[in-house]
Amino acid sequence: MKVTFLGTGSGSTKGSARFKSGILIESKGAKVVLDFGSGIHMRLEDLGVIPDAVFVTHLHIDHFSGIFDHLVRRKIDNISPLRVFTLKEFGRILEAVKNSNDIDAIVHESRFPNATIEDLEIYSIEACHKIPAVSYVVTDGRKSVIYTGDTAEPCEPILNEIPRADLVIHEASCLDDCKAWGHTSIKEALRYVEKPVLTHIPSQIEKGVQNLVGDKAIIARDGMSIDV
Ligand SMILES: [Zn+2]
Ligand SMILES: [Zn+2]
Question: Where would I find the Metallo-beta-lactamase domain in this sequence (predicted)?
Fold first, then answer.
């Protein structure tokens, strides 16, 4: 599998250095996107990638608002409808703007979204956030990747799943403590996870992040790819 970071900024990130959340996972047969914040549609267009499906971790705006721009692109270019796997309520949000924009998508709502897309199996587990949220595990049968989405550690379901993963993509939204907002700090991510790839980072704390992380983790950046 090839993992490409389309957007690595938190909801609070400023400017264009890091777009909001989005990760592309490509296998031999499938292209899926985990979360689809603002800017992700532009990254996909730059790469010339049309995803087969999108999996949304939760309904905070920085994790799904880019989908609407992408649906407009699909309409203009006459591309088949996007499949969106999501928690409840996304369908209602889409419904509100669908007719006025002449866009559509095939929405699969579930408390724990899961699907098989060609050679990729995707399933979700409970994350520990301010609102209902999941983490996704993606596997091609040989290797597996876990993407936490937004979560505050220690989060038991995630910590139980992590030892089985070949690559751990973990959120890290502040330097010290952001539990009150349902997030994990850089310090906590390093304490609970061995060699994670850190994402969901506010660009305004970039220097502090680098100083704390050193060689203990990989700091994801927009455009970075990792082969798993
Ligand atoms: Zn977020
Ligand atoms: Zn969130």
Answer: 19-204
Q: Which ligand is nearest to the CA of 13?
A: 1
What are the start-end ranges of the E strands in 92-163? 105-109, 115-117, 120-126, 134-139, 144-147
CA–CA separation, 147 vs 175, rounded Å?
20
User: Comparing C-alpha atoms, which of 99, 106, 58 is closest to residue 79?
Assistant: 106
- Kindly give the distance from the C-alpha atom of residue 77 to the centroid of ligand 2, in angstroms, as a whole number: 31
Report the 10 Å Cβ neighbour count for 226.
15
23 Cα to the center of ligand 1, angstroms: 13
Please tell me whether residue 151 adopts helix, strand or coil conformation.
Answer: coil
* pLDDT tens digits for range 171-199: 999 999 999 999 999 999 999 999 999 99
* Number of domains the chain is built from: 1
CA 78 / ligand 1 centre spacing (Å)? 31
- Residues 5-22 have pLDDT tens digits of 999 999 999 999 999 999
The pTM for the full model equals 0.98
Q: Give the structural domain span for 81.
A: 2-227
User: How far away, in angstroms, is 132 Cα from ligand 1 center?
Assistant: 12
Residue 199: CATH number of its domain: 3.60.15.10
Tell how far CA 55 is from the center of its chain. Answer: 8
Following CA atoms 148, 89, 64, 129 in sequence, which dihedral angle do they give, to the nearest 10 degrees? -30
CA of 137 to the centre of ligand 1 (A): 18
Helix H or strand E encompassing 44 = helix 40-47
